[in-house]
Amino acid sequence: MDPVASPHAGWAPLPAPRRMPERLSVREQVLDELRDALLTGELPPGSVHSGPALAARYGVSATPVREAMALLAREGAVEVLPNRGFRVVCRTERDLAQIAEVRMLVEIPVVLDLARAVPAARWDELVPLADATVAAAAAGDRVSYAEADRAFHRALLGLAGNPHVVAVADDLHRRAQWPPVGAAPARRPTLRAHAAHHTALLTALSAATPTEPLFRAHLAICP
């Protein structure tokens, strides 16, 4: 009699499980962990993972895993494979360039309007957020940097008072942070250079000097 095949045969191996932090709902905890794994490459592009295997990794039932993966599928991070699980979407450099182009169309006009309307003192409110990106970059913490980077942009765009713009821009920003196929994780010098843009942008906005070239260069790269 042929040996019974493992139910997980053919699926990509998973990294060692980490203890789940006690925060938010179980689904949100799993979602956060999966997003972190996508950022760091622990769940690399093209890899296939089953719901039961992910549930075992995080020590939860299959339901919150399926719910979290369904949200990631709607975000475009994974695709559902019927009766198999989920496959991490393979992105190319062209995909990221196209996302950057759309981000420029959304964010640059807002920031240029803010540059003309916001008092110089208001930009000081964003300095702690810019400093947080610098600290995360100095530590070489890719996950913390991604969170701090998006927090800075949400606060910056939030000054315009349009939550819909913030939501659209944040979704695009998150998509831009997923690494493309074959890309190595961003190194500390790259993160530091990108973080320095935040400080330089606030300096330019406070001094009422041109910001578009700097901001365009910043959006073109999302480590």
Automatic annotation (TrEMBL):
Q: Which PROSITE patterns match?
A: HTH_GNTR (PS50949)
Q: Which residues form the HTH gntR-type domain?
A: 24-91
Which GO molecular function terms does the record list? DNA binding; DNA-binding transcription factor activity
Q: What is this protein called?
A: DNA-binding transcriptional regulator, GntR family
InterPro entries to which the protein is assigned, alphabetical: GntR_C, TF_FadR/GntR_C, Tscrpt_reg_HTH_GntR, WH-like_DNA-bd_sf, WH_DNA-bd_sf
Keyword Signal listed: no
Classify the source by domain of life: Bacteria
**Which organism does this sequence originate in?**
Actinacidiphila paucisporea
Specify one Pfam family. Answer: GntR
Keyword field? DNA-binding, Transcription, Transcription regulation
PANTHER family from the entry? GNTR FAMILY REGULATORY PROTEIN, TRANSCRIPTIONAL REGULATOR, GNTR FAMILY
